[in-house]
Amino acid sequence: MYIKTPTKGMRDFLPNEMRLREYVLTIMKETYTSFGFEQISTPAVEHIENLTNNEGGENEKLIFKILKRGEKLENAKKDDPNSLIDSGLRYDLTVPLVRLFANNHQNLSLPFRSFQYGYSYRAERPQKGRYRELMQCDLDIIGEKTNLAEIELITAVITFLEKLQFNNFTLKINDRQILKALINYAQIPIDKIDNFLITLDKLDKIGLDNVKEELNKLGISNDKIEKYLQKISEENPNLTDFCQDLPIAKEVAQNLNEIITTVKKLINVEIKFEPTLVRGMSYYTGPIFEIMAEGYQGAIAGGGRYDNMIEKYTNLQVPACGFSVGFERLIMLLEEKNFTIPNKNEKICYLLTKEMPQEEKTKILEEANQNRQKNQTVKIVYKNKNYKFQKDNLEKEGYKII
What we know:
Elements: H1 15-34, E1 38-39, E2 45-47, H2 48-51, E3 65-67, H3 70-79, E4 85-89, H4 94-104, E5 112-121, E6 133-142, H5 148-163, E7 169-175, H6 176-186, H7 193-200, H8 203-206, H9 208-217, H10 222-232, H11 239-243, H12 250-266, E8 270-273, E9 287-293, E10 299-305, H13 311-314, E11 320-326, H14 327-336, E12 347-352, H15 358-372, E13 377-382, H16 387-396, E14 399-401
Parallel strand pairs: 1-5, 7-8, 12-13, 12-14
Antiparallel strand pairs: 2-4, 3-4, 5-6, 6-11, 7-9, 9-10, 10-11
Helix pairs in contact: 1-5, 5-12, 6-10
């Protein structure tokens, strides 16, 4: 007997759902293209070595791994069970982008401004807004070492969100170098730093008490935890004042201040310096940022600078910065607010009847083709017995019935 539901964490999409998804992608492409970004595409399957290089944080525990095939699989079974796997489904779009750049950097001009969208896969527990198959939309600038990259990325993403009628959101911003300085300030042991940051990143999800408990389990003493938390406990801290007594270069705070003040002049957005912001990926090296939407607890977009990642693939030191939009969360929020897709082109539906002479049907078909050449959307269907149900559905889809 066939199972009628999709695999857990995967979904089917009906036409009305696909219309919204495609509309959002269209607005995204139009916006990013207007900022001079160019579209790329990468495969969903990557070499397992690329996916398990300690750059993906917690996501590396969620990889869908793919077995070798045919003779290679049989030989691996005989030799070493650990060698059964040679590839996996990507968990994000950054690793594939870096690999693409490493393969093609000789043919690309810098800075390279790209965007891509596609499905990523994570073997996590499905819940509201979280799926095992998720559409991701990334925007990246490779080869720009100044904060022009951060400013352009933030401005482009917020412009895109505004076109979808989002206006009540907050941009949280921090810098990985500030986090490192805080770690030194609190004297967190070097071998605990990665797990410390991963746990701290859960602060807004599991709360302060649970974070303390997890840090204790990592073997971090209470006095070190309290010293760290005491420093970050101030509400709405001033960036410059916050960094004064930390072992950190003045340029770090100055750079963040420049990003904040410039973006505020370009677009209308609330920006908050957030010293607890971590971002889960370990490849971030500088400014990191997230966008929070009113009425939703998690971030709907996030990113940051990852200047050292490309060097691991090419031995070339090339700066990079990126921003990823949580597409599935965005769609969920739009559906919850009953977002209506603006009708740019007239949609016409011609109704045929079985009694209608063939000549009249042909005339309708000819007229429909003429209207399609005028960029109108035209559907031709036979009138159903239950006309009221048919009519209601067509009108919901935005069709004018003729």
